[in-house]
Design a protein that fits this description.
about 0% helix, mainly beta, about 60 residues, 4-stranded antiparallel β-sheet
Length: about 60
């Protein structure tokens, strides 16, 4: 018997303590595409967005509440 996996795995480099409750999927810029938003315990926010089969990373600086 042969096993086949159809899931693509992506690995993101985002430092600090990231908790499950600080991850969210959503459309952050009304483009119709889903983005992964992650925050860490230091107050940093990162947005991972896939557009045109390319992974873009946006890092938000400043005070996040």
């Amino acid at each position: 018997m042969r096993s086949v996996c159809f899931v693509k795995r992506l690995e993101f480099d985002f430092g600090g303590n990231v908790f499950r409750s600080s991850l969210e999927l959503g459309d952050v810029d009304n483009s119709g595409d889903m983005s992964l938003v992650a925050g860490n315990a230091s107050g940093d926010l990162a947005i991972f967005k896939v557009s045109s089969r390319k992974l873009n990373f946006y890092f938000v600086t400043g005070h996040i509440t």
